[in-house]
Amino acid sequence: MLQALYKHPNEAGTDEAGRGCLAGPVTAAAIILPEGFTNNVLNDSKQLTETKRDALRPILEQEAVSFSVCHVFQDEIDEINILNASFLAMHRALDTMSHRPSFILVDGNRFKPYPAIAHECIIKGDGKYMSIAAASVLAKTYRDEYMAQIHEEFPMYNWKKNKGYPTKEHREAIKKYGLTPYHRKSFRQLPEQLTLDI
Question: Where exactly are the structural domains of the chain?
C-alpha cells in the first residue's frame, strides 16, 4: 500500500521516464496531491498496464493541487548527458508548477538540489509514495504519447510499441535505416560487436 505523505503537506513527488531510451526525450513530472488523496490502482507506472496508466492520468490531473510535465529532448541530452538531463527535466517540471511545493520527494538515489526547497531521494519511491507514483504515471503517459506522435514520422522504428527503448527490433531498424534526428547521438546505438547466434 502506498503512503500518502512522507513528511509535509504540500510536498511534490517527482519522477522521470525514458532515461534508458535510444530515441526521444527524457520526460519528468512533478505533482502535489491533496491531503487525504487515495487511489487503489495507483502504483509505480512500471507495475501498471498501459490501460491503467491511461485511465489514471485524467484522475491525477483533475485531483492534483498542481502538476507539471516537461520533456528534455535528444539534442540537450547529448549536450549535458542523460543524468543531468533527467535532473533538468525534474527541475523544469517543478519550475512550471502553479503551486510552490513545501518539500520535494524524488524517485531514486541522486538529485541536484532544487533552489530553496529541501528534498529527499527515495530508492524505489514510486512503489512507496503516492506522489512519486503519480509523477511516474504522468511522466510515462506523456512520454508514450509523444513517442506515438513521432512514430507516425518514422514508423519503421516502431516507437509506438518500443517507445524508443533498445529492443532488438529497434536496433535492427537502426542498422537498416540509420539514425533519425530523434535519436540520441551520445548513446551507443548498436553494440560494438554483434555476436553470432550459433
Answer: 11-151
